[in-house]
Amino acid sequence: MDAWEAAVTGRAPGVVRVGLAVPLSGPLAMTAPSALGLATLAAGELTDAGGVRGRPLELVTVDAGRRPAEVGADVAALQAAGAVDAVVGFSTSDVSRAVAAVLAGRTPYVFTPPHEGGRGTRGALRIGSSPPVQHAAALAWLVRHRRARRWVLLGTDYVWPQAVHHAARAVLRDLGADVVGELLVPFGPADPGPALDLVRRTRADAVLLSLVGRDLVAFNRAFGRAGLGRRVVRLSGALEENGLYAIGGDDTGELYACMPSFAAAASDAADEGQLALQERLAAHAGPDAPVVCAYARGVHDGVRTAAALLDDRTPARPRPPRARLARADGLVFREVGHPA
């Protein structure tokens, strides 16, 4: 059900409605099929298991890929109409802050992706990782094993990349590595030239990428065309399976990610939970089901967490993912270390 229809029809006593605020447009829209697939899988499995107090779950989609004020207005309309019992989703942090401010603790809000850390907003439950938890072990592994001593920090100019850069500076300083350049850029298609020039000019060994979605894809494509891929390590806290496919894979061996889930890896490192989830999604949506990516896996956990909250049960919060570092190898992620 879309947000407009739910706001017009208002409360539905016979069902539990969960607002699903995920990017259907904007830089992260490439993840939408995966997110919608995993959210409907979670809602269907919960309904088949008895629902929430015997009521089935319905999802109400809100496009979280727009400007914060637009997304906030849609969520406010749903709340005013009593049309949703909870909201779950992922987005950029500026959008999530707008959603949390509108809900103001009156409606449960489960925010699922990696987040900027710090104090949360009343009524918002964050189940992802903060920048230090997500990045510290990966940075340490690359400094020690790939001799990545000179770093450029490159991200989009909003809350999450700013927090990632702040955390990375502290971690790299403690490791004896140097930040030799930093650049924050606006959302949207941009000339990659200044960023590439910064990498060359500073003689960087490594780039920490906090770009997201299609902007991350565009930069990685340009990076490869510039011939920098085999000389300079790249680490991303936002690269997931859909993004890797969109880039076209990587044959340099120097593209790394520290997202909490990855596509099927080598048999000795495969995530059995991820593989089982992909199998259940394929059974639910058919053989053309989208890939299970980190963002979608978070939404699946978020829907289940919201259902537990609405059922007056203490939700079994997803276990925090252990620190992971994966290297892109063709179109497959391979885990290359076990950072503590």
Automatic annotation (TrEMBL):
SUPFAM superfamilies listed in its UniProt record: Periplasmic binding protein-like I
The Leucine-binding protein domain, residue ranges: 16-311
Annotated protein name in UniProt: Amino acid/amide ABC transporter substrate-binding protein, HAAT family (TC 3.A.1.4.-)
Organism: Geodermatophilus telluris
Similarity comment: Belongs to the leucine-binding protein family.
Domain of life: Bacteria
Pfam families (UniProt xref): Peripla_BP_6 (PF13458)
Alphabetized UniProt keyword annotations: Signal
